[in-house]
């Protein structure tokens, strides 16, 4: 027993070392139990319909184990006999870990802010605020990380925060010069929010890409193409280039050419124009201010061309395609009933040895 009492590590009896490990282990166990309990509460039936409260409880549960570990470590260090220098290092370590635990908690609570903003955004008609939610979330998290790093720098350097901020200002200038493209993209995102060329979910065309806007960030904007590919475009390029916002069109216009054969008599051509007008008369997607336009347009290379313009409201692409298919089927049926033949590319060949259609060759004067 006396041997155990005389056993020391760095001037500390064994029971002091055991007390340190006991406090750390106790902190970990308490943290694990608290996290388990909070996660169980957040997934319980009482909070199932209260999304924000459930997010708060789950966010607090995430750093719980680390927080209690730091608390146990701080309590355990009180049992040790340390030299002045080591004691200062231990205190700084505990302060740094405590700062990290608080930052971890605030970082997790950003999810609560996101839920609150999403609920507010869902209550508005515009989708511009939906674009702001992810940017606010990222800004808040970056702010938490930067403040935590500044606090840690102050703890380790023992300098006032004003001196640290001044040093960051000088270093920030150097970083800004080295990250000009990143700054361009950041200001590009601000221009996008100020100019509002599109909103979340709008289908746009840009530089050969076609698809809905999926996310707008500080550096880039993401477009989900119609093929399913995710394209990331720097905001600096997006802010300085023409963007075709298909999602904002009030209608879809169709230009349709119908070719009938050259042996179609004039009265049949007139009847074809009447049939197209009857099919499109007061159709389901018609706006009274934009009625269909139908013309005998041109004498084509192998057909008599009828050109048709009509507009479909609202600009629902799939309903428009369904309606266009119905129009095509009805025109085919009506033209067949009237004996009006559709033209297709044809060529007439004359053979030199054909007695019915002799091919004369003009050899010119004196030939």
Please give a structural write-up:
The protein is an alpha+beta fold and 367 residues long. It folds into three domains: 157 residues, no CATH class; 64 residues, SH3 type barrels (Roll); 90 residues, 2-Layer Sandwich (Alpha-Beta Plaits). Helix content is 56%, strand content 14%. The strands form three sheets. It has a five-stranded antiparallel beta sheet with strand order 6-5-4-3-7. The protein has a three-stranded antiparallel beta sheet with strand order 8-10-9, covered by helices on one side. A two-stranded antiparallel ribbon has the order 1-2. A hairpin with a 5-residue loop joins β5 and β6. The chain starts with a helix and ends in a 29-residue tail after the last helix. The N terminus is likely disordered.
């Amino acid at each position: 027993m006396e041997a155990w009492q005389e056993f020391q590590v760095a001037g500390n009896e064994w029971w002091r070392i055991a007390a340190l490990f006991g406090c750390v282990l106790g902190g970990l166990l308490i943290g694990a139990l608290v996290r388990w309990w909070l996660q169980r509460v957040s997934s319980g039936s009482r909070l199932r319909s209260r999304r924000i409260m459930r997010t708060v409880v789950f966010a607090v549960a995430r750093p719980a184990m680390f927080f209690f570990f730091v608390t146990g470590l701080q309590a355990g260090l009180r049992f040790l006999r340390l030299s002045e220098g080591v004691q200062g290092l231990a205190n700084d370590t505990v302060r740094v870990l405590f700062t990290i635990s608080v930052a971890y908690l605030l970082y997790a609570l950003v999810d609560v802010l996101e839920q609150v903003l999403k609920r507010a955004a869902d209550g508005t008609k515009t989708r511009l605020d939906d674009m702001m939610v992810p940017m606010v979330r990222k800004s808040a998290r970056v702010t938490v990380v930067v403040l935590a790093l500044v606090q840690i720098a102050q703890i380790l350097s023992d300098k006032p925060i004003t001196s640290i901020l001044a040093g960051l200002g000088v270093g920030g200038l150097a970083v800004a010069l080295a990250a000009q493209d990143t700054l361009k993209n950041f200001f590009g995102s601000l221009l996008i929010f100020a100019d509002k060329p599109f909103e979340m979910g709008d289908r746009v065309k840009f530089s050969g890409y076609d698809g809905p806007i999926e996310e707008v960030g500080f550096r880039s904007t993401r477009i989900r193409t119609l093929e399913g590919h995710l394209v990331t475009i720097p905001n600096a390029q997006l802010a300085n280039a023409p963007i075709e916002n298909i999602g904002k069109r009030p209608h879809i216009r169709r230009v349709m050419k119908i070719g009938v054969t050259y042996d179609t008599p004039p009265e049949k051509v007139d009847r074809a124009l009447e049939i197209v007008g009857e099919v499109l008369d007061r159709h389901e997607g018609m706006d009274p201010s934009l009625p269909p336009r139908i013309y005998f347009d041109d004498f084509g290379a192998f057909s008599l061309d009828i050109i048709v313009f009509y507009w479909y409201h609202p600009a629902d692409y799939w309903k428009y395609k369904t309606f266009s298919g119905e129009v095509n089927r009805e025109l085919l049926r009506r033209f067949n009933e009237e004996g009006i033949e559709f033209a297709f590319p044809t060529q007439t060949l004359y053979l030199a040895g054909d007695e019915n259609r002799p091919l004369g060759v003009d050899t010119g004067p004196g030939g």
